[in-house]
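Changelog entry: the Cohesin domain-containing protein record was regenerated in this release. Current contents:
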Amino acid sequence: MQTTSVATICSVGAYIVFDSTFAPPFAGVHLNIEFDGSLLEIDTLIPGWIGPGSMTDSNQTTPLFTYTIDGDMLDIFSYYLDTEETSIDSVTHVAEILFNPLQTGTTELQYDTTQCEVIQTNDTIIQIMGSRTATITIE
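Regenerated structure tokens:
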């Protein structure tokens, strides 16, 4: 949960975190995020660090990163490209999403997990399970 004001940019991080007992190697990510366009508009999208050591930025590997915004829907596509390694198996910061609050209210960002996926190097899809939301209160 995050509280912000109409005059303040709001930042939401998007991460891939695996269960401690299951961390398969992967090479790409597709995130599908729904937001309320009457309360929030996307100001900036910043690619995260993807790759070994991504949580500490030790490699500072910027991924192939693209996105589309269609109304209240944000699609992020991020792919790990490296000359030596073909996949990663660590916690990964996919993106930082900066929202511009438009008016007061409470809203939820919702990951559509039927559309989100983690992609292995052989194009095998790792389905994202569970519910992922973030609540933002604008004062």
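The CA atoms of residues 114 and 129 lie 8 Å apart.
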